[in-house]
Amino acid sequence: MAKIEVINENVNDTLESTSARRNTLARTTIALPEVRCCNNQRQKLWRIFLPIAAVILIIISVTVPVVIIGKNKSKKLTSPETTTATLSSSPTTITSTSVHISSAFETTSRVASATTELPFTSLSTLLTTESTEQIQPSPGELVQISLDTVDGITMGIYNTTIGGNSLPATAGNAVGQYVVRHPPSYACDNNTKTKYQSFGWCSLSNFNISGCGHNTGLYFELESGATLVIGLRICEAISRRARNPKIVSLEGSNQSGIDLTLGASWTLIYQGSAEVYDIPSHEDCGRIITFTNTVRYSSYRFLVLETVSKADSTDYSEVQLYTSTVV
Fold first, then answer.
1. pLDDT at residue 227 above 50?
2. What pTM value is reported for the model?
């Protein structure tokens, strides 16, 4: 009997275990469709939500910066105080060919060129630096200065370069001379009917040779004393235009007497075109050349570095210097 009871118990345990497994399997089988169903619904929702979210983000990323920029622009344009303050702090740079106006929203200065050549009828030039502002005068503010010299002496020179010692020229028709009837003082007499003619390393017998009249010129000491010169003008002589100065220089010095023969006494003020092109007729003057200079000099040296073309010499009727009424 004991064996039969044990066997019955084992059979019952087996049946109960089998029944439990069937119940678990049934519950698992029922749960799987439910899980799949939920997953499918979630995927459908994500597929709908993600594109909508992406569109919203794109719209926000485009519209927000536009709105901010629009507000900033409207503030800058509509605020009179900001515009006035910015405009007052923005320097204006004017050259002979164009007008550069600093932006109303910029606060930095622009540096103009140190040397500017302007036609006589051109606009004035406003030169700006980082620390100071220098105004180049308009033609209406330029005044020709008198070239009356100390003791009436105007020295002719030849074989002289910028910064070099002055080699005196003499009257005659040979190398290192100037024509007797056309002395250097005639270039400073304010009379276009007279002229200064210098041979340089050539002579009256030379003709159409390159370099004749080059590195010749004159220097003088002003009777009026130290004067600020910011303009130069060359006038043509009654002669062959091949003799006209093409490239010239102007130097200043506060020395006098024999010291003016020394190249170390001179400071370069201008070097460049003589601006005598397109002159309608002989005895006319070229354009006024203006340049930056802040030092008053009592003596000035003018050199012809190159002529327009080959000739036996160089000649010109006047060398005119200009100062400013606002200086």
1. yes
2. 0.59
